[in-house]
Amino acid sequence: MIVCVVDDLIFSIRISTAAKHLGVAMYFERSRDKVVSTIAEKRPSLVIFDLNSARLDPLAAITALKADPDLREIRTLGYVAHVDGATIAAARDAGIDEVLARSAFAERLGEILTSA
Q1: pLDDT on residue 54
Q2: Residues near 86 by Cβ (< 8 Å), separated by ≥ 6?
Q3: pLDDT class for 84, splitting at 50, 70, 90?
Q4: Which whole-number Å values give the CA distances from 59 to 19, 21, 76, in the listed order?
Q5: pLDDT, tens digit, for every residue of 2-46?
Q6: Which pLDDT score is estimated for 72?
Q7: 93-to-2, 18, 89, 115 alpha-carbon distances in Å
Q8: CB neighbours of 70 closer than 8 A, spacing ≥ 6?
Q9: Buried b (16+ CB within 10 A) or exposed e, 78-112
Q10: pTM for this predicted structure
């Protein structure tokens, strides 16, 4: 199971289509208030964050996730516009495990989903 904290329609469709093709179970959380509780409930092998989502506040969710001793070991991966150095630094400070540029994320999507 992979949880996606993504509200961008294009990337949601891209991720969902790839997951269906590969037979990977996905859950999309689009409520800022439910991100951490959904992760706690689902216990995914990976959480994918759109780090540029202003609506979902991914940095706060990552900080809360990594501060929780029961959840901090869940692998996290975020994708971001490659020119957004401030968000990349903030995500790393929050404790995210891996950050990729949007283009690298899209290119490696199949590999990411199957290795989760």
Answers
A1: 87
A2: none
A3: confident
A4: 24, 30, 11
A5: 999 999 999 999 999 999 999 999 999 999 999 999 999 999 999
A6: 95
A7: 23, 30, 6, 25
A8: 40
A9: bbbeeebeebbebbeebebbebbebeebbeebeeb
A10: 0.95
CA distance 57 to 17: 24
Please name the helix (run of DSSP H) or strand (run of DSSP E) that holds residue 71, with its range, or none: none
Taken in order of first residue, the domains within the chain and their CATH numbers are 2-115 (3.40.50.2300)
Q: Which residue has the tokens 């501060």?
A: 67
H-type alpha helices, 35-116: 35-42, 58-67, 85-94, 102-115
Name the token pair of 10. 């294009």
